[in-house]
Model the fold of this input.
Amino acid sequence: MKKHLNTLFVTTQGAYLAKDGETVAVRIEGETALRVPLHTLESIVCFGNVGCSPFLMGSCGQRNVGLSFLSEQGRFLARVHGPVTGNVLLRREQYRRADDLDFSAAVATACVLGKVVNSRTVLLRALRDHGDKIDAQVVQESINRLGAAARRLQEGLSLAEIRGVEGDGARTYFSAFDHLIVRDKANFFMHRRSRRPPLDRINCLLSFVYTLLLHDIRSALETVGLDPAVGYLHRDRPGRAGLALDLMEEFRPMADRLVVSLVNLAQLRCDDFVCSDGGGVRMSDTARKTVLVAYQKRKQEEMTHPFVEEKMTIGLFFHMQALLFARYLRDELDGYPPVIWR
Amino acid sequence: MHESTDRHCDDHSPLEVKLYDEDDLIMISSLQHYLFCTRQCALIYLEQQWLENRFTAEGRVLHERVHTSGRESRRKLRIEYDVPIRSLQLGVAGRADIVEFHRQDNGLWQPFPVEYKRGRPKKDDTDRVQLCAQALCLEEMLECAVPEGALYYGEKKRRTSVIFDASLREKTAQTAAAVHALLTEAKTPPPHYDKRCESCSLLALCLPTVATRKQVGRYLRKMVEL
Ligand code: SF4
Done:
């Protein structure tokens, strides 16, 4: 099995990354603060004002080390793309199939099915773990509706219908989501999903974790030679990572669970967030670091991949899904198997 | 002799040899990958997939060392490192790690390719075919015969001499033609699982044990039984 490699997150403002032999040197105020061998890295994510030498960028591109630049708050800014461009034939197939509405619907079904079933599992676990503390009836109601949505998806729906099921499912799920938070309800709550800007702490956390997830999935797709921009459920829209968003659906519930446990285990406090006068909520540096560490740790956990039936780290799941998708495009598989957590 | 004169295959040559276009040359290293596993060859040269593992990293460090110096010269022996070579007849291009030029009694310099290999000598022909391809390139470029070369195995610290006889030449030409056919057809062959896979640097990408077709439908039905 491919080894799980690390992600280097650089959050120190003013830091500069340079290639030093076979390592990445992180320089802070002219001093080398850290050196990481390149071959141990899967990706590098820079937050805010972090610089990077062109030679390091080149090496990252050449060796498929994802290199992304995000704003301090985690908004995507740019990505470095190396000279290795993957298989143009595979990408042509990806594009061709995106014009095929039946194929697109099949992919969309698989992605939404993964999301719906996994969302349902999140709620089921919450019910099992905190059934006494939460409004079990509301949660159970959502579980039932998500179950119905999953059955509906097996009926061979059109793209528009699939999108409808996805939307209903998300609404149902997030309407129950607030009940999963059992600590400090005065400060941690979620009444509805908001993104631009996030209007409460939970939404702020979710957005941030989704950004990390999207970065990883996008890197995995590029490594395999797929174009993250051309999706099936998410149709083309300039600037949008359609395929990365498609494959992200099945992983969102995992990210949600991470957020819930960070809050329920009191790893984040209410003053880890800054509320702006406009109503938007931002994270403090410490909160961001806490989330990054928790995310990294989660990626290092091992699980059996349900389709491949091999044990691997969760970090490798992204890569595996990208590989399986490429196989589907090459007709080596008869469908796309989303990761379904049982 | 190593004074490369600009020349083209003349149209009057008795044997009609098909020459490849420079744009269509394949990497010499692809021959070796093809002989190891056709799928591996397609994954690398068609899908442009490459996974750096410990072995390839070590190989690269070794090569980087070999490639640092350019040329060494003594009275009877001159050595060139990292020499760009190609053959339009085979349709291959690449670099030779080392080409030694041995001075002969008649004053001519005889080219003698040497390829460095990590690890130990292999039972199969892959390394010999790769070296032979280099020899054929040198023959074509320098217009001379290259009857012999050597493989140097890092683990054994030993040189093995390789004679480029008719059967090795034939096998090299056939392999080059087969790689061209594979890349022209542009279809990645399906995986097959056997003991080679364990030492394959692309194992994690190729997933030879992951079941293929007709599995996903069943998987989905099983996973969403609510
Ligand atoms: S893992 Fe096996 S089948 Fe796949 S490329 Fe390597 S040797 Fe070939």
